[in-house]
Design goal:
Oligomer: single chain
Number of strands: 6
Shape: elongated
Order of helices and strands: HHHEHEEEHEHEHHHHHHHHHHH
Radius of gyration: 38 Å
Strand order of the largest sheet: 2-1-5-6
Mean pLDDT: 79
Helix content: 55-70%
Strand content: 5-15%
Low-confidence stretches: 1-8
Distance between the termini: 17 Å
Structural class: mainly alpha
Length: 460
C-alpha cells in the first residue's frame, strides 16, 4: 500500500484516462450494455406499466363476467363491479353476449387473468338473505393479478349483500312498527268508542230521549293510513348512504414536504434502472484492469516516470466519467423524450448521481483487486451486481419485502441511491433531505477504494 502511494503528485495519469475513455467509447458491447439496454428497459417497462401509474386512467384489469341468472339483482351487482376503479368488466365480445365456455377459453389462452360467473338463482338468494357463491375461473400463471382482483370482488360482494341485508332488516323493523302502531291505535279507538257509548247512553237516559250511537271509530274503512313503504324507503336510503359515504373519513397529510402530483411510470422506472445499470460499469472496469495487468501493460507503464497511484487513478476515473455520462443520458432521455419531471432539486439529483457513480466505480476497482482472470471478472461482477440490485430494491420494491430484507438492503449502495432518487423525484424533497443518502454512498465508495488499494496488484 505504501508503494502504491509513492511518487510525485502530477497529472501523468491523464494520458491513461484519455486512452481508456476512447477504448471504452469505441467498445460497441459496452455502449449497448451501459446505454442502449437501460434505455430499452426503461421504455418497455414504463409503457407496459403506464396505466398503473396514470392517476386519471380508467383502464384497469379486464375481467369477463358471465351472468347465468339474468335477474335484476344480478344486473345491479355487475354495475357495482363496474364502479370499482381498476376493474374493466367485460360482458360482451364482438357485440355478442359472453358465454361460460367462451369466457373459460379466453382465460385458458391467457387473454384474461380470470373470469367471474354469477350463478343461477343469484337474485332470489340475495333477496332472501341466503348464502350465494360466485364462481371464478382463474389462470394459475397470473396468480398475483387474480389475488388482487378477488379481494376487490369480495369487497363489492360484501357491500352488495349488506345492502339487501339492511333492506330486509328495515322491512322487518317497519313491519314491527306497523303491527305495534296499529295495535295501540286499535286499543285507543276501542277505549274511545266505549267511553263515547257510555256518555251517549248516560245522556239519553237523563233526557229520556233515544239517541243513536254513531258507528265505531275502529272501522278502518275510511280512516287515514300511514305510508309505511315511504318510511321503509327513507330508512333504507339513509342506511345505504351511511355505507357509501361514511361519516368518518381519512384526509392525507404530508409532514415537512409539499404534496406532489402522483408520479408517472418514468419517475418510477428511470431511477430504478439507472441505479441498476450504473453498477454494470463494474464489469468493464474490472475487465480492462485485469486485461492490461495480465498483458504486462502495467509493467511497461510503470517503467516510465509514473507511479502506481497515478496509474490507479488513471484506470478508475474513465469509468467514473462514463458512469456520470450514463446517468445523465438516462435522466435526459426520460425528461426530454417523455416529459418526466426532474423534481424540485437538480442539485439533489447531482449529489445523488455523483455519489452513486463513485460507489459503483470503486466497487469495480475492488473486484479488479480480488480476481485474477477476465472470466472471473464477468462472473463475479454479474453475481455481485445482480445480487445487490435485487437486495437494494431496483428489481422488487423494498416496501413489499419482509422486514429482515428491508434491513439487509441498507448494506447495499443500491438501496441508498434509489431511496435518494425517489425522495427527490417522487416525494418532492430537496437536496438537504438526501444528504444522508449521499454520505452513505460516499462511505461505501471509500470503503471499497481502501480495500482495493490494499489488495491491488499491478503485476501478474
Amino acid at each position: 500500500m505504501n508503494d502504491l502511494l509513492r511518487g510525485e503528485k502530477t497529472l501523468k495519469f491523464i494520458p491513461i484516462l484519455k486512452k481508456d475513455l476512447i477504448v471504452l467509447l469505441k467498445d460497441k458491447g459496452a455502449i449497448i450494455v451501459l446505454f442502449i439496454l437501460p434505455i430499452m428497459f426503461i421504455s418497455v417497462m414504463s409503457f407496459a406499466l403506464g396505466a398503473v401509474y396514470a392517476p386519471d386512467s380508467d383502464k384497469g384489469v379486464s375481467i369477463p363476467v358471465v351472468n347465468l341468472d339474468g335477474s335484476g339483482e344480478s344486473v345491479m351487482f355487475i354495475e357495482s363491479l363496474r364502479s370499482v376503479k381498476g376493474l374493466d368488466i367485460i360482458t360482451e365480445t364482438n357485440e355478442s353476449k359472453l358465454t361460460e365456455s367462451k369466457a373459460k377459453e379466453l382465460v385458458k389462452n391467457g387473454k384474461y387473468a380470470m373470469a367471474l360467473f354469477i350463478p343461477d338463482q343469484f337474485g332470489e338468494k340475495v333477496l332472501l338473505g341466503d348464502e350465494v357463491a360466485l364462481i371464478s375461473y382463474e389462470d394459475p400463471a397470473q396468480a398475483s393479478t387474480t389475488s388482487v382482483v378477488s379481494k376487490a370482488i369480495e369487497g363489492v360482494s360484501q357491500t352488495f349483500s349488506v345492502q339487501f341485508t339492511i333492506s330486509n332488516l328495515v322491512d322487518e323493523q317497519v313491519k314491527g312498527i306497523q303491527t305495534t302502531f296499529d295495535s295501540k291505535l286499535d286499543e285507543m279507538r276501542t277505549v274511545y268508542d266505549n267511553r263515547l257509548k257510555e256518555e251517549i247512553e248516560k245522556i239519553a237516559k237523563q233526557a229520556q230521549i233515544p239517541i243513536d250511537v254513531p258507528a265505531s271509530t275502529t272501522d278502518t274503512g275510511n280512516q287515514d293510513t300511514v305510508d309505511y313503504e315511504a318510511i321503509k324507503a327513507d330508512l333504507t336510503e339513509k342506511a345505504s348512504s351511511s355505507m357509501s359515504e361514511p361519516s368518518i373519513k381519512v384526509n392525507s397529510t404530508f409532514d415537512n414536504i409539499e404534496k406532489v402530483p402522483q408520479p408517472d411510470a418514468f419517475q418510477q422506472n428511470v431511477p430504478g434502472y439507472t441505479v441498476m445499470f450504473a453498477f454494470f460499469t463494474v464489469m468493464f472496469a474490472g475487465r480492462s484492469f485485469i486485461h492490461e495487468r495480465n498483458e504486462g501493460t502495467f509493467r511497461r507503464i510503470l517503467s516510465a516516470p509514473i507511479n502506481r497511484l497515478q496509474l490507479f487513478i488513471g484506470k478508475m476515473l474513465p469509468n467514473y466519467f462514463i458512469g456520470i455520462l450514463q446517468t445523465m443520458v438516462m435522466f435526459c432521455f426520460g425528461h426530454f423524450a417523455f416529459g418526466m419531471s426532474l423534481g424540485s432539486s437538480v442539485i439533489g439529483l447531482l449529489l445523488i448521481s455523483l455519489s452513486m457513480v463513485w460507489a459503483s466505480t470503486t466497487l469495480g476497482m475492488l473486484i479488479a483487486s480480488i480476481v485474477r482472470t477476465e472470466s472471473q471478472v464477468t462472473g463475479f461482477s454479474m453475481l455481485i451486481v445482480l445480487t445487490l440490485a435485487a437486495l437494494g430494491g431496483t428489481m422488487v420494491p423494498l416496501f413489499i419485502m419482509p422486514d429482515i430484507m428491508q434491513k439487509i438492503a441498507l448494506v447495499t449502495p443500491h438501496a441508498w441511491a434509489l431511496s435518494g432518487y425517489q425522495d427527490l423525484l417522487v416525494r418532492g424533497m430537496g437536496a438537504t433531505d438526501v444528504l444522508g443518502n449521499v454520505a452513505a454512498l460516499f462511505a461505501f465508495g471509500f470503503i471499497f477504494i481502501l480495500v482495493s488499494i490494499w489488495r491491488m496488484r499491478f503485476d501478474d
